[in-house]
């Protein structure tokens, strides 16, 4: 299993336009392909100007990474910093063949 932690993930709240900050933890069992870390960094940076809800952005990242690498399994945990006193963690998972 490979685990990649991205502690500086940023996206935009689609309602307020304010930045949302979080830590992405990407854990996956590769098949033939892995993602390259610089490419991942550049890919994630595009969300800095993209308005999306926590759940939508986390699912989109999972879908894109699965499409690019075709892993045996992948799990992403997005731990967003508190906003209004509430902390949100989003967990999404993919398993090949399911």
List keywords for this structure.
98 residues; alpha+beta; four-stranded antiparallel β-sheet; 4 strands; 26% helix
Provide a compact summary of the structure:
The chain has 98 residues and is of the alpha+beta class. The chain is built from two helices and four strands; from the N terminus they run E-E-H-H-E-E.
Lay out the secondary structure.
Layout: E1 2-12, E2 19-29, H1 37-45, H2 54-69, E3 73-83, E4 86-95
Question: Your description of this structure?
Answer:
The protein has 98 residues and is an alpha+beta fold. 26% of the residues lie in helices and 44% in strands. The protein has a four-stranded antiparallel sheet, with helices on one face. The chain is built from two helices and four strands; from the N terminus they run ββααββ.
Unreliably modeled segments: none
Q: Helix tally?
A: 2
Total strand segments = 4
Radius of gyration: 13 Å
Hey, roughly how much beta strand do the residues contain?
35-45%
Topology order in helix (H) and strand (E) letters: EEHHEE
For the sheet with most strands, the description reads: 4 strands, antiparallel
* Structural class estimated from helices and strands: alpha+beta
Give the overall form: globular
Separation of the first and last Cα atoms: 19 Å
Indicate the percent of residues in helices: 25-40%
Neighbour order of strands in the largest sheet: 1-2-3-4
């Amino acid at each position: 299993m490979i685990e990649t932690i991205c502690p500086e993930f940023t996206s935009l709240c689609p309602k307020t336009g304010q930045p949302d900050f979080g830590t992405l933890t990407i854990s996956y069992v590769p098949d033939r392909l892995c993602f390259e870390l610089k490419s991942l960094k550049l890919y994630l940076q595009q969300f800095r100007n993209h308005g999306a809800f926590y759940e939508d952005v986390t699912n989109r990242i999972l879908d894109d990474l699965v499409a690019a690498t075709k892993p045996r399994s992948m799990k992403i945990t997005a731990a967003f910093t508190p906003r209004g006193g509430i902390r949100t963690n989003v967990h999404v998972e993919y398993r090949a063949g399911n």
